[in-house]
Amino acid sequence: MNNMRILKIGLLTCAVALGLFAHEELKGKAVSFKGTVVDTGCYFAHEGMEKGHTACATMCAKAGIPLAVVDESGKLYLVLGNDHKNPNTRLMPFIEKKVKVTGTLVDKGGMSGLAIKTIEAAE
Q1: Cα dihedral value 75, 92, 20, 2, nearest 10
Q2: Measured CA angle at 87 (ends 45, 101), to 5 deg
Q3: Where in the sequence is the domain holding 101, given as residue range(s)?
Q4: Potential cystine with 91: which of 4, 67, 75, 95 (Cβ 3.0-4.6 Å)?
Q5: Taking a C-beta distance cutoff of 8 angstroms, is the pair 84, 57 a contact?
Q6: DSSP string covering 68-90, please?
Q7: Which among 45, 88, 46 is positioned nearest to 69, based on CA atoms?
C-alpha cells in the first residue's frame, strides 16, 4: 500500500480522536450490526479482507495501524477512541472474527466512524 495513504489514514484517525477528546458528547445515530474486525493497512492494500494473517494484523494494530469493522454489506467503519483509550486494544481479541457491535455512528467527510458501546463475538 502507498505510504502516503497509510499516513493519511493515520492522520485522519488522530484528528477524529482529538475531536472526540475535545467534545465529550458524541452526536450520531444509534446502530447495531454484525461485521468483521480488519486491520485497515491490509484491508486497503489487498482490496479487501484477507484471511489467515491474524499475527500480522495484530502486529500492525500494536504499531498503531487502525483496526476497523466491515459490516456484512462491505461498508467499513473506522472505530473511534471515544473513551480516551486506544480503540485497537478493545478490538484485538476479535481480529479477523465476526462480531456484533452496538454504538453510535457518525458520518463525516465521506467516512463512517463508529463509537462502540458493546462488542461481542457473533455466530
Answers
A1: -60
A2: 90
A3: 3-121
A4: 67
A5: no
A6: EEEETTS-EEEEP-TTSS-HHHH
A7: 88
51-102 pLDDT, tens digit each: 677 888 888 889 989 999 999 999 999 999 877 788 999 999 999 999 999 9
pTM of the model: 0.76
Classify residue 95 by its DSSP letter. Answer: B
Residue 111, exposed/middle/buried by CB under 10 A (0-12, 13-18, 19+)?
A: middle
- Number of domains within the chain: 1
Strand 98-108 relative to strand 76-79, pairing: unpaired
| Cell 504499531 sits on residue | 63
Q: Which residue has the cell 444509534?
A: 30
Q: Cα–Cα distance between 70 and 91 in angstroms, integer? A: 13
Q: What sign does the CA torsion over 70, 71, 72, 73 have? A: negative
pLDDT tens for each residue of 27-50? 899 999 999 999 998 888 876 565
Write the CATH number for 68: 2.40.50
The x, y and z cell numbers of residue 53, run together, are: 494473517
Residue written as cell 467503519?
A: 77
C-alpha cell at 115: 463509537
